[in-house]
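lol forgot to send this yesterday, sorry. struct tokens for the thing we talked abt
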């Protein structure tokens, strides 16, 4: 099977948001890498810079008005191999956790919310604070979205442990704290990437708020999902209607004489209680019934 078919299948499969996000980021990076290199050989490197400019988020609001799409495109665009490598690794590791416990749709909404929050904080800081008002910049990279997912995972499952090379077992709440402190330290105006680190902090904040609101029964991601569903339905092929006639109107019984039925959706209060239990005691403390209820909720959201 070709790579093209593998990519198509990844986008056809339901509940496959994590893989889709990684594929989009990698494809954008590869396009710049494959096309940009020969262009630079021929003296047309300005074309790559021009394309990068029209995908990156500007710090000036007036400039943003001329390319508003960059509020989205910037967090799918990377420059530099290690830039995308570390972002995609963190997205995969921590995204797998959220995908399992909260479902792929909430993972998507958090990724977008983290990117939006990081981008807006970047613009605000560069236009309101004296240390930045005399400067301008362009923002690219998924770091704000990824840090939102990292902090969300650490807020939901603070005692979950990763085995780090050369270090050993470390609870993810300490990994998230270290990443946030690093972003805070390098958000200084003298830093070469102050704007990027400011965006990281915006993403981290939204990740924490997202989980806290979810535990209170409020899903911040619903507006994001409503927008994505709208555009998805625009391009979805509608099935052709087929009229059939039958004299039998009753439900078809199964072999055991009972009708098929889907399991009932778990109550939101019950899901919140399970999430609180995971946060305090870990996923392993859940009973088989509680794990099943959490799985049902993640499949239906």
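and heres what i got for the seq, position by position
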């Amino acid at each position: 099977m070709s790579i093209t078919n593998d990519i198509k299948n990844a986008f056809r499969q339901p509940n496959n948001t994590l893989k889709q996000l990684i594929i989009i980021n990698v494809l954008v990076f590869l396009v710049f890498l494959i096309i940009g290199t020969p262009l630079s050989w021929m003296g047309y490197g300005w074309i790559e810079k021009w394309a990068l400019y029209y995908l990156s988020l500007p710090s000036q609001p007036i400039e943003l008005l001329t390319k508003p799409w960059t509020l989205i495109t910037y967090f799918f665009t990377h420059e530099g191999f290690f830039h995308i490598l570390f972002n995609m690794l963190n997205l995969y590791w921590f995204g797998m956790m959220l995908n399992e416990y909260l479902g792929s749709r909430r993972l998507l909404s958090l990724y977008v919310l983290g990117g939006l929050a990081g981008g807006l904080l970047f613009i605000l800081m560069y236009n309101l604070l004296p240390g930045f008002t005399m400067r301008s910049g362009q923002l690219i990279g998924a770091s704000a979205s990824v840090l939102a997912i990292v902090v969300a995972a650490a807020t939901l499952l603070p005692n979950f442990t990763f085995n780090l090379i050369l270090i050993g077992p470390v609870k993810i709440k300490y990994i998230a704290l270290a990443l946030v402190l690093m972003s805070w330290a390098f958000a200084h105006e003298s830093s070469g990437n102050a704007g990027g680190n400011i965006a990281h902090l915006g993403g981290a904040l939204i990740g924490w708020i997202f989980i806290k609101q979810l535990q209170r029964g409020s899903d911040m991601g619903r507006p994001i999902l409503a927008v994505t569903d709208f555009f998805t339905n625009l391009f979805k092929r509608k099935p052709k209607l087929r009229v059939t006639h039958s004299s039998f109107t009753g439900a078809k019984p199964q072999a055991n004489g009972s009708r098929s039925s889907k399991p009932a959706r778990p109550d939101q209060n019950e899901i919140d209680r399970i999430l609180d239990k995971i946060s305090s005691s870990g996923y392993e403390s859940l009973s088989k019934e509680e794990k099943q209820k959490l799985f049902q909720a993640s499949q239906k959201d």
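The longest strand covers residues 161-164. anyway ping me if u want another try
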